[in-house]
Amino acid sequence: MTGSLVRSGVTAVASTPWNVRLRELANKSLFGEAISLYRSMLRSGSSPDAFSFPFTLKSCASLLLPVSGKQLHCHVIRGGCEAEPFVLTSLISMYCKCGLVEDARKVFDENPQSCKLGVCYNALISGYTVNSKVYDAVYMFRKMKEFGVSVDSITMLGLVPVCTVPDYIWFGMSLHGECVKGGTDSEISVLNSFITMYMKCGSVESGRRLFDEMPVKGLITWNAVISGYAQNGLAYDVLELYEKMKSSGVCPDSVTFVSVLSSCAHLGAQKIGQEVEKLIGANGIVSNVFVSNASISMYARCGNLAKARAVFDMIPVKSLVSWTAMIGCYGMHGMGETGLKLFDDMIKSGIRPDKAVFVMVLSACSHSGLTDKGLELFGAMKREYNLEPGPEHCSCVVDLLGRAGRLDEAIEFIESMRVEPDGAVWGALLGACKIHKNVDMAELAFAKVIECEPMNIGYYVLMSNIYTDTKNQEGIWRIRRMMRDRGFRKEPGYSYVEHKGRVHLFLVGDRSHEQTEEVYRMLDDLETSVMEITGNTDNDRDEEVLNSRREHSERLAVAFGILNTSPGAEILVIKNLRVCKDCHVFIKMVSKIVDRRFVIRDASRFHYFKDGVCSCNDYW
DNA sequence: ATAGGGTTAG
Q: Which Gene3D superfamilies match (predicted)?
């Protein structure tokens, strides 16, 4: 094939040996080899033609090689086949996948036939969508209809995912309506994308309704709802639907397992998580990096640090999320230095940090008392990595300063923030005020925090506890009145303990468990251990302290009951257990007492105690 | 038998 033939617009031939091999490699996803082959082709003097470009462009897109892609674009122009529909679409798609949507748009605009080709719109719309250019995606969709180009299911698949942005939910719903009216909704994949859209917008019920109404459900349909539940924090619903899925004969895949594992993490249900892990191995499902990351987080939150690390070490190519999960794991266990070391390793291995990993790093610092290191890293965020700190990072800084007792600096920091402080920022200040018993500043922080999150009961409880600590009866009543006016109900402080796959529920003061006697015996042993560790045994005979410990005992007894009967159990999850405020120990879960160290967790995070002092100071 | 597509982790 000569260059002149191509230039004159003669259709390319699939059967040149180069092209056949190129197609083979691209279809087998051997993109690197495809690009090498293309280069050898050039070196050998053969000219690429309209049949060679789509495969090579696709390879550049898959490997995110915009520079090679641009070179190819030049070759396309030189070969005169830019107008060839397949080439045109491949070009647009390549630029979109590489994040260069403007270049894709230029290709589209400069070729008159693209505005007649549905595939070109489809490629560009999905490109705008994945690059979160909501406005442009919708604009192209409107243009498409204006020009009378027919909208198909693939257009919808490209467009629907963009509708999760707050202002465009109405648009997404109107699209759904259009599909129902126009009959395009028979495509199962389109419905799947609508389920996801509703779930991402938080309309869990709408998503579920759509799911229930679907006559035919595929694997992805189930996954869409299950992961939707997981993303909305409905961990129990995830497990429930997972069971239903299995009993309806649909075989879960690794995508399903990711959501199930992450829900196990939130429930602290390690047993179920491990079962899932076994299942993954047994079913021969390739454990990909997604599954591994979810496993790390599951083991981390279930207290099995060693297992989490083992999974991390086994990942052949660790993603940024893998590192983030592992760093977060050390952070929640109060092993800030180890977490920071890992962060260094990550940077050294050439991975660019993002905002999420900085949240983990900063919170690891604050949980380990590494105040100045944390502040330094916060500064480096913008300076070295060009990441604009969000409120989530600012709340970590407030936490850092606050725990260190630098309350004035904390409030100064809040005033100097470039972003609007949110509930978490003021909440962190409120928490710091609790530790350092600063009622005046607490009242300020409280006023701000309930402005942001008026329905978050936790902040009312926190403020009330501050008044309790400072013996301000009038303040306590004021908070109670507020809570009553807002219709909060005081929930009973229940605890739950996962043991051998069963979840045991306890109320405060509950003596109904069949092993109550053992539970109380266990308490005595535990408390003795605590006293030894905190070093408070003999030198602390204050009447009030002793009373408070006695009161505390009862709750501990309930909470730790299972420990006695399961010496092998490493984890106990105990929710809402009140803490003895005099000895700085014991919150909601004890896993081991080793080396004068405790690991305790509540529903959302770990508390790592060393010498009786908790790394997070987040006491009730 | 070459282009556009639904579900996943921190």
A: Tetratricopeptide repeat domain
